[in-house]
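Troubleshooting: if your tokenizer reports a length mismatch, compare your output against this known-good record of 389 residues.
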Amino acid sequence: MLAAELRLPRADGSLAPYVPSGAPRHPLAPQPPPRSRVAYAAAHVVSDPRSPIDPVLGGTIDWDATLAYRRHLWSLGFAVADAMDTAQRGSGLPPAAARELIRRAAADARAEGGTIAFGAATDELDHHAVHSLETIERAYLDQCELIEAQGCAAIVMCSRALPRAARDADDYARVYATVLGSLKRPAILHWLGPMFDPLLAGYWGSDDLDRATETFVAIVRDNAAKVDGVKISLLDAGREIAVRRMLPEGVRVYTGDDFNYPELIAGDGERHSDALLGIFDAIAPAARAALAALDEHDRARYDAILAPTVELSRHLFAAPTYAYKTGVVFLAYLNGFQDHFRMLGGAEGARSVVHLARALELADAAGLIVDQQRAAERAARVFATAGIL
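Known-good structure output:
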């Protein structure tokens, strides 16, 4: 099939021609890390479609392809944030596989000279049950010990168990003080909003975001020596900017706002956010080119590069936001980073073919499709599974 022959399914049931935009606009050549910002790309995992383990039971990871994608991100100068939401933590990645991912990716980072940090979670606990604070602390400490044993920093993720166990903000303060106090190196604290995981509603002890913010910031202040930074994933630029002003000197904000990342990373002249973003998995070449422009103080070029990626990101992260991983993996498949579109937990079925068709168009418009002919052929295979020939 020629790229120009591909027909894209639309919401009204019609088929529209795919009009390729031209050659990709951003190089894939190796580059050093950006100078003006710390930039983590949260990386996805590649499933093994030949595994006899049913996807609904978690499936199996294709370790070669999974680690190869991390090497791709390192080659572009990114640090990698691993074993987190983008890697389907809590949505397909079994706890035992998360531990194996930490060990394998850390070893690869050492061999490649790449920077990597890992999510520390409590996913080995049954999130349907009510656990004691001591049990939650032990689950966190076990994860942090594993991560630090690899010579890596922890990204302390929100615990699904805590909203069920904590009576008030003081219980959150207690758990985080215990966990952070155990660490040998500063960690990143992650505030993941309920749009990414509905089971995290009411985190920090309140559904009132102002009160939750007060608790979050107080925990950071009380443990500042053990906090490298905070990752805020609320899709609320105003709140992130407010938190930037409230944090102790030297504590970074790593934006996790996949809707508003260009202006948050650029900053307001006084403060800026660094980056720890799932969308960087999908837009890595463009993001690296934009950061290079920012290094050169070329704000106009930075904005011009990232502007077309924002519509793509808002599409991929549209409600239900937690399904964004499907679009990320679809684009990795189109661009040849894996040879199939299968996911842990069967998550390839979380988005409609209409959604996926629009993702292809928007990625192409942003200069992110490496080979349009290959992408068209692969997209056609996916659409064919929905009876679109």
